[in-house]
Amino acid sequence: MIAEVFFVSIIAGFVGSLLGIGGGLIVIPFLSIVFKFNMHQAAAAGLVSVIATSSGAASAYVKDRLTHLRIGMFLQLATVIGGVLGAILSGFLPAKVLSLIFGILLLYNSFLMIKNRKSVEKPQLASPKISKWAKRLKLYGSYFDKIQNREIEYSAQNIAGGFLMMTFAGILSGLLGIGSGIFKVLALDTIMKLPFKVSTATSNFMMGVTALASISIYLARGDIVYDACGAVAVGVLVGSAIGARLMPYIKSKYLRTAFALILIYTSIEMIRKGLF
Fold first, then answer.
1. Is residue 188 packed enough to be buried (19+ CB in 10 Å), middle (13-18) or exposed (0-12)?
2. What is the pTM of this model?
């Protein structure tokens, strides 16, 4: 079992770091469906994979100036509070309900990503408008896009809406053990209007802290399967380090398409498991 979990975890870390969604999106269904872990044990391993993904990708994204540390730290307060609440709530919900909720949420988000798959960062003729709060909190910045060979400037928009969405993302992280990277990326990309690569990199940075706040609840309840979680941690760390080095050279539209395909498959499997 350990070898299979390790191999799948490498893939999970690679994909998770590219898309900012955490390895739990792949690890949880794999452990639940193939090795028949109960949903709480799989969710705990998913949180381990999220922490490892964040650790493996963070340094590379910070070096490439893709991660906006100030935006990440500002929004982390909401996700940590939500993460603890979600982990507590998970103890009162049966495994089939968790699987069904997980699947439905993923399916909905896959349709959103397909709809927006052609969205790319377009050249700006002028610097982006910086709102009063974005300026006060310094929630703006720039990075050099290696595909477009130019500097891209950006500024966070709708800060209040993004903060609320991050609270919801934190609750889902603790409830489902997924790191809620999909919702964080959507909040950063569609609500706060950040470039897609900045959204995924900042999501990677944030979700490790959120998962760390949640996993203590699972540890106290005895949901940690230590040998499986060890294989997950090492495999995801290797995969995420590789993915982080490749992501700056991949076009955003390809990342969106890959994201949507993974979500569709995973959501169908988890809905099936929750219904039958």
1. buried
2. 0.73
